[in-house]
Specification:
By secondary structure, the protein is mostly helical. It folds into 2 domains: 1-91, Serine Threonine Protein Phosphatase 5, Tetratricopeptide repeat (Alpha Horseshoe); 93-260, Tetratricopeptide repeat domain (Serine Threonine Protein Phosphatase 5, Tetratricopeptide repeat, Alpha Horseshoe). It contains 13 helices and no strands. It has helices at residues 8-13, 19-37, 41-54, 59-71, 75-89, 95-104, 108-115, 118-121, 125-141, 145-158, 166-179, 183-196, 204-207. It is globular, with a radius of gyration of 18 Å.
């Protein structure tokens, strides 16, 4: 295990530690990431906890532990780690995962409250999309299936299929349509998600009963993802990176190691 496999930003965070401690922590973080990639969440947890014992005041270390708990469906533990990481870093990028953890705990109202904060509204485009996916899922959790569809409709229709979040967004939209009883339209967007999902972020192909993704679907948009702009906030007064299909990091969720 080579500590140099750790990404540059995380290595920078570890500079606050002694050289030996930084090296040992980095090795555990690399091992945790590899274990997550192999879906060995027990090993991932072991390494993430070891890193946290060594460097519990480093935000990225606590975030990694939170993501592992998130992937394991341990929502309360994930939420606690995300809150700590946010406090240590001063960054709001974990808000979508925090909101989704609230959903996992059966508290969709709290997810909507987090999405309504000024900090959430100032998130960059990728995190705004993830938060929109979470909000849609929270609406569905509350039985507001039409609102779940409405929250994502314009983002899907106006967004570029070349955007890095395109597959997950279409998957979440398909799930919302399906929950609202629009089966045929849902199948159309599951097919689009499967076509776009080169990295296997979703299980859209499996939902469709396909061994491979569809070869060709006309999505009717060739514009650059940079032109997509920030998503709107139509009903948000208040979905990396795997988790639920309708939350961040999931077959549809966010974090780089992260649930839908």
């Amino acid at each position: 295990m080579d500590a140099r496999q750790l990404d540059k930003a995380m290595r920078q965070e570890l500079l606050t530690l002694s050289k030996d401690n930084a090296d040992g922590t980095a090795r555990h973080l690399v091992a945790a990431g590899l274990a997550v990639a192999e879906d060995d969440l027990d090993a991932a947890l072991e390494h993430a906890q070891a890193a946290s014992r060594r460097a519990g005041r480093v935000a990225g270390v606590r975030e990694t532990l939170g993501v592992v708990h998130y992937r394991r469906g341990e929502w309360a533990k994930a939420l606690a780690e995300f809150r700590t990481a946010r406090r240590l870093s001063g960054s709001d990028h974990l808000l979508p995962l925090m909101a989704d953890a609230e959903r996992g705990l059966g508290r969709p109202e709290r997810a909507l409250e987090l999405a309504a904060t000024p900090e959430a509204r100032r998130l960059p485009p990728a995190e705004l999309i993830e938060m929109a996916i979470v909000v849609s899922g929270a609406r569905a959790d509350m039985g507001q299936t039409a609102a779940a569809v409405q929250h994502l409709r314009e983002l899907v229709r106006k967004g570029s299929p070349k955007a890095p979040w395109a597959a997950r967004l279409r998957y979440a939209y398909a799930a919302a349509l399906e929950a609202d009883g629009h089966e045929d339209e849902a199948q159309e967007y599951y097919a689009q998600a499967a076509h776009l999902d080169a990295d296997g972020e979703t299980d859209a192909a499996e939902v469709l009963g396909l061994d491979v993704a569809p070869e060709l679907i006309d999505l009717g948009d060739d514009e650059d993802p940079d032109d997509e702009g920030e998503p709107g906030h139509d009903d948000r007064d208040g979905s990396p990176t795997e988790g639920r299909p309708d939350g961040p990091g999931g077959p549809g969720r966010t974090a780089e190691t992260g649930r839908p």
